[in-house]
Specification:
Largest sheet: 6 strands, antiparallel
Number of strands: 16
CATH class of the largest domain: Mainly Alpha
CATH architecture of the largest domain: Orthogonal Bundle
Order of helices and strands: HHHEEHHHEEEEEEEEEEEEEE
Helix content: 25-40%
Radius of gyration: 28 Å
Strand order of the largest sheet: 3-8-5-6-7-4
Strand content: 15-25%
């Protein structure tokens, strides 16, 4: 082989080495990104398992808290608002995580999980506060809620990561609640109160069972026929048909009722307004007179905020109130029949809040409700309300259904 050919071969081999090295670095970066993505998903899934073991009695099977069931005292956690996205500054057509908002949300959740929340049922979970979790486990819960693990690069899609974690939470709950060998031996209709199971051994009266999305309470057990008599649609679920072979689970875990947390990392109750501070402008009603809600409206819980004796009329077609922690600054509104009014809510508290009016049917979350979105600190949302007949309707915050209440009177 002559020198010229040797030089050409060597140059060719050098090019191949360079190209191979270049491709290796590209592949290595992709491999590193994939590894970090897998690590993030694994931490979100572990956060889901921690949630199922420790948190679902208050925050619900799916992490929706009082939105999932108003009997649950915990805040909704599985919300898009906890996974903030923004337009990509380099490509407005694309979206990506909002680092500033995300850091703020993660910091708030870390403090709350670590220290608990004064005046609520939320205890401290951090080891240094007497709880069972270390800092890494708390970060895994944050990965579940926000779709991002503190200390790792941000993924392109926060919700995709969080969704994996919530799927793991439900899977863990199903595994923990599984009654092995217990399934429906025959299909049941929505009105049936006797269920035939493959086995009723070890079941006890008064306990709850979960079948599909319905919860039933056992009234009586017949060992001879493997039958149970049940109360349908317990725990604010809906009675439904269930197919033969449907799996029977225990639960749900009934939420605690107390005691409320009195000490939480030095937190103090929000200071009252200074003496002499005038209340927000409102139109006085007759002294001490508060209209009675229309028949069929939801019953106000004993712990709910009292309705103020003075009512607020719209100003330029707008009625405004603030959500504090945890009350409405004004909670007694009056409008005229047929009048279109914008109800505007501003969140001046630290917790998420909304305002939902139960419609004439007196049911929460039905087709005739009016509601704002669930908003975070500093945010505002509104809706337009009108009614073509006199009535007095109640409203509440879905996130704090046992505390934040009010009413709106529609008059001639």
């Amino acid at each position: 082989m002559n020198t010229s050919k040797q030089v050409n071969v060597m140059i060719g081999l050098m090019f191949l080495v360079l190209i191979g090295t270049f491709l290796y670095f590209i592949w290595d970066n992709v491999r590193a990104d994939d590894a970090e993505q897998r690590q993030l998903v694994q931490n979100a899934e572990r956060g889901g398992k921690l949630f199922s073991l420790n948190c679902r009695s208050c925050h619900g099977l799916n992490g929706l808290g009082s939105l999932e069931n108003t009997l649950l005292p915990g805040l909704p956690l599985n919300l898009e608002a906890n996974r903030p996205m923004m337009a990509d500054p380099d490509d407005p057509g694309k979206t990506g995580p909002d680092p500033g908002k995300l850091m703020e949300i993660q910091s708030r959740f870390r403090d709350t999980i670590r220290c608990g929340r004064l005046g609520t049922l939320m205890p401290a979970w951090a080891e240094d506060q007497g709880g069972p979790m270390n800092d890494f486990q708390i970060d895994q819960l944050i990965a579940l809620i926000t779709g991002s693990m503190p200390g790792l690069d941000l993924p392109d899609n926060l919700s995709a990561i969080s969704e994996k974690g919530w799927e793991a939470a439900v899977e863990e709950a199903d595994h923990a609640d599984l009654l092995r060998g217990k399934k429906l031996a025959a299909a049941v209709g929505a009105a049936d109160t006797i269920f035939v199971l493959t086995d009723v051994g070890e079941l006890t009266a008064a306990s709850l069972l979960r079948i599909d999305d319905e919860v039933v309470r056992i009234v009586d057990i017949s060992m001879d026929n493997d039958e149970i008599t049940v109360e349908r649609a317990d725990f604010q679920t809906q009675a439904a048909e269930h197919e033969e072979g449907a799996q029977v689970f225990t639960g749900p875990i009934e939420p605690p009722t107390g005691p409320f947390i009195e000490v939480a990392c030095g937190q103090t109750q929000r200071a009252p307004a200074p003496s002499g501070t005038p209340p927000p402008a409102a139109t006085p009603a007759a002294p001490g007179v508060v209209p009675t809600p229309s028949a069929g409206q939801p019953e106000r819980p004993a712990t709910a905020q009292d309705v103020q004796a003075e009512f607020l009329e719209p100003s330029d077609g707008v009625t405004e109130t603030d959500s504090l922690d945890n009350s409405f600054s004004l909670n007694n509104f009056q409008v005229k029949v047929g009048q279109e009014v914008t109800i505007r809510l501003s969140n001046t508290g630290l917790n998420p809040h909304n305002l939902r009016i139960a419609g004439l049917d007196g049911e929460w979350s039905s087709d005739d409700d009016f509601t704002t979105a669930i908003i975070q600190n500093g945010e505002t949302d509104e809706f337009t309300f009108s009614l073509d007949q006199p009535a007095t309707l109640v409203f509440r915050c879905d996130v704090h259904p046992l505390e934040m209440w009010g009413q709106i009177s529609v008059t001639e």
